[in-house]
Amino acid sequence: MPEPLVKHIYTADPSAHAFAGKIYVYPSHDRETDIQFNDNGDQYDMVDYHVLSMDEVGGEVTDHGVALSAEQVPWVDKQMWAPDCAEKNGKYYFYFPARAKDGKFKMGVAVSDEPEGPFTPQPEAMKGSFSIDPAAFVDDDGEAYLYFGGLWGGQLQCYNSDGTEWDGSKQGPQEPTEGDALGPRVARLTDDMLEFAEPVREISITYQGKPVPASDHEKRFFEAAWMHKRNGKYYFSYSTGDTHLIAYATGDSPYGPFEYQGTVLTPPIGWTNHHSMVHFKGKDYLFYHDCSLSKGVDHLRSVKAKEMKFDGDKIVTMDP
Ligand code: FUB
Question: Which residue ranges does the record annotate as region Disordered (predicted)?
Fold first, then answer.
């Protein structure tokens, strides 16, 4: 089993990128708490972010220290969950979800000239943002997109497709048990990377051409969106939540639809499964987390990495 990238702090939800000739990893920073495990994820009670970097996978890992903390962000109350970072025009944009003072998850963006931060947050949450787990993707044509969403404690079930709040006529506040599964969301970003450039759209994940049903918990989207592009094809990968898998689906457009293809990663030690993929120096790597270092304590996770293999355009399923 691979070793954690670092052992002096707990880290989770890794978003890995090749920036400036190195791999930078943007994880959540798990911390000790007395809050008991519950389905809302209250035990994930994080207050800041660190950035990690390395010259190669398996090499020495640098912890660049606190890159952003809750006390710097006026709208944040608690729970700084899974972040991501994108580079555009020489600046680095750090996207993060957190629970705002009204109890709702929103997403913020913070900016730096360096990939490791420190990041300066915008004073307000991104307009129209909701739910959790932002994943930023800059396409070959320079357009950038933010994928996001998470069920249960991540509150995705409380919103309609366009991001308006549930009015009692459709899904939520519980995850639907019948009909089509709720889809992840995406919006193109403005040129300055700070806001949504368009209304939020719901993404369709299909299996054999039909929307994945809400009852299919081995295939339906739960959280941990990730987008990468390979040989012109868009790969959307995600966690299935209560079945603890990383699944993936492919399509021809950044907006989908994405057809389900299979499992990327089987369940790790711990409840959550959350990953990213990065192409670096001719190889592909999967970053993920497990609770091996904390001996199974669910909210104390550690980031790990493994080389990935493709069989043609299919991802070869991996065990943690
Ligand atoms: O780390 C808190 C939450 O746990 C993340 O936002 C989810 O993806 C899950 O890993």
Answer: 163-182
Residue-level pLDDT at 63: 98
Residues of the chain with pLDDT under 50: none
Closest by Cα among 91, 86, 92, 79 to 49? 79
Q: Where residue 281 sits, what CATH number does that domain have?
A: 2.115.10.20
Peptide bond into 118 cis (omega under 30): yes
Instruction: Calculate how far, in angstroms, residue 317's C-alpha sits from the geometric centre of ligand 1.
Output: 22
Q: Looking at ligand 1, which residue's alpha carbon is closest to its atom 9?
A: 272
Please give the distance, rounded to the nearest whole angstrom, from the Cα atom of residue 256 to the centre of ligand 1.
Answer: 23
pLDDT digits (tens, 9 = 90+) for 218-250: 999 999 999 999 999 999 999 999 999 999 999
Residue 1, domain member (yes or no): no
3 falls within a domain: no
Structural domain count of the chain: 1
The CA 82 to ligand 1 mean position distance, Å, reads 5
CB 12 near ligand 1, within 6 Å: yes
Residue 82 CA: nearest ligand 1 atom is: 6
d(CA 203, CA 161): 9
Rounded to two decimals, the pTM is 0.97
Ligand 1 neighbourhood includes 289 CB (under 6 angstroms): no
Cis amide bond preceding 2, omega within 30: no
User: What counts of helices (H) and strands (E) characterise the chain?
Assistant: 0, 24
Tell me if 95 sits within 8 A of 85, measured CB to CB. Answer: yes
Annotated catalytic residues are 13, 223
Range(s) of the domain holding residue 156: 10-316
Distance CA 85, CA 15 (A): 7
DSSP codes joined into one string, 195-214: SBSS--EEPPEEETTEEPBT
